[in-house]
What does this fold into?
Amino acid sequence: MSLAWRIARRELRGGLRGFWVFLACLTLGVAAIAAIGTVRGAIEAGLTEQGAVILGGDVEVQLTYRFADPEERAFFEGLGEVSELVDFRSMLAVGDERALTQIKGVDDAYPLYGAVNLTPDMPLSAALAGRNGLPGAVIDPVLLARLGLEVGDRVKLGAKDFIAMAALDRMPDSAGAGFSLGPPTLVSSAALGDTGLLAPGSLFETEYRIKTPEALDLETAKAQAETALEGTGYRWRDRRNGAPGISRFVERLSAFLVLVGLTGLAVGGVGVSAAVRAYLAGKTEVIATLRSLGASGGLVFRVYLLQVGALAALGIAMGLFLGGVLPLVFGPIIEASLPVPVDLALRVRPLAEAALYGALAATLFTLWPLGQSEHIRAAALFRDAQSGLRGWPRSIWIVVCAVVLAALVGSAALLSGLAMLTLWAAGGIMAAFVLLVLAALGVGALARWLAPRMRGFRTLRFALGAIGGPGREAQAVVVSLGLGLSVLAAVGQIDSNLRNAIAGDLPEIAPSYFIVDIQPDQLEPVKASLEARPSVSKIESAPMLRGVITQINGESAMEVAGDHWVVRGDRGVTYADALPDGTMITDGTWWGEGYQGPPQISFAAEEAEELGLKLGDTLTVNVLGRDITAEITSFREVDFSTGGLGFVLSMNKAALEGAPHTHIATIYAEEADEPAILRDLAKAYPNITAIRVRDAIDRVSEVLKGIAAAITYGALATLVTGGIVLIGTAAAGEKARVYEGAVLKTLGASRAAVLGNFALRSALLGLTAGGIALFAGIAAAWAVSVFVMETDFHVAIGSAIAIIAGGILATLATGLMFAWRPLATRPARVLRARE
It folds into this structure.
């Protein structure tokens, strides 16, 4: 090794000529993964360190449909300082204008942590106190603009008037509030008593935030709550995980972005391999000289392994520097674009993960050409020393490559936290890689077959001859560009299908409005008024309660079902006597009209299968603080994609009829009449809340737009890496093109003909890369849409055309970038130099 290092060190004194592409590809790939990991770590640290601020307290206990009784309140106060909040959706009215808002009724202790920022600047207590005998409200600026409100104007909430005292710029606990269909409005909870919005059965939640002493152990407090609040249907959160929904979202999105980064590293690996191959091909004479002086193949391998290893360490170090520093440089932009606190700092784990991925990728893509270098013999000095690397490496290196590949995929699966997604993604990347290599070989063979048959098309014949000739230009171009375009094609197709599913197909089948909090005595009058409208085509209604599934077969539901969404919070529960119209029972039997026996449950079939439920199992559902244990006697088909009424859990009428509850209704109407429907309903029944489905779709579309943008940026980074590989490939082939151009000019070809030859071959390779990438991207997008997102899939023509056009333009640009020197060089000078 000392001899090998001495030779390697002396060769490295000649500079890094030929290794810029190697360094750029490795640096970009490592930097992308390191940056993603750094931002993810910053968000996780922010959520942990600011958990109490995000949550609004050290502990939060949520109750549904009710306020805490004196005993429960006493327990909360025994843990520390308590702030009581009531949270629900309602309609804010100004004249004939109505808008959905998320009401948060707060007490004098709110907020326990942080501060509420208002415009104009004033204490929250002063704003909520109001003036002129009316209570105050602070309203989100978006809602103020939507309703044309100014500070000081009157607004109506339910049956009561409020004064808009200020614009709500920021709430310290907004990040932990989760997804909301309406902008927030803050009022005093004491002012809600005579609004008519908190009638028995109305859907609202109370949140008890507790600021605990530092010495209090949260795990001990949680255990005490399990005893003191047993059977009440409470939900516990504490500062250790103040925003679990955001944590899950960040974890999964960043894991997916890491996979996109690994794809970029795979694209860069093609450039790494090509750079090492080109470098070793240029060192053929040096290697042959070493062999003639008695050097073994193993010594040659070690010499260039040390060189490549040293340069790989340099590339990884530069990537770690960029990936660690860039998030800090753009920290203000990142913090402004995220709804959660971030703690941007250099962290060891994300940098170590990126370094591991970079080292494994560099090893994987350099071992093959290094292994081939062992086959260069001393006789190469007396033959064509520019023939390059040929043959297969020894079997030991093939096995090592397989082991390194397994280590790379295994590391990604282990560290990303989404093992199955990683394995499927790795399989897709390898399948696309193999497909692109086979396509490149196929294009070369086809070009060799077609070239002699294009006698009447000289420029096309020369272009096909160059594509099918010796060298690896076609393979490097098709594979590097194709992988980057494949990721971009998949992202484009998935994004297009999601947008179509939400903004295109759903409004055709979804209702115009969801109406909630309809009191039982209001249901028939509401339905009668709606049925009298010619624009209303259909009305559906059902009793509506909220319940928490606490036990499955007598065991904790969270322990049995894990983190499944059905048991994660409270769910909509309904009841029915006779089998509702359109209900399809897939297994078991309905209890029948007039049933008065023990409680029974009909459960959604698909969700039951995911939870492992079967007929005869028992569920304990806490409704209004009362536990109801019922047997599952049937499964039914529930299609949530229609946007209509759909309940995971339905019970027999006798089990729930006596509980205070409201009704929910869906209205299917012509779009032109929707504003009038909302106006008339709000005037006649100020307590009910109407949720316009098109507005909900817009909110979901906004979220998806942000997700798609993040993923698209990751895909573009992959494409940039592919562009660097293209430039490196074109630069490496410039010398051969100079000679080729000289020969063509000598044979009478004009500059235009030579340029057309270069442009045509680049366009053909780009068309091939774009076509194969489109096929691979559509296949990946179809699998994700159908099997992961469970939506219909249609090929987005616009995105498909853009991918193919992008492939052609990318190769054309890089090909022409290095065409000017071959065009400008005089043939005599080139041909004499080759004698």
Residues 79 and 215 are 11 Å apart (CA to CA).
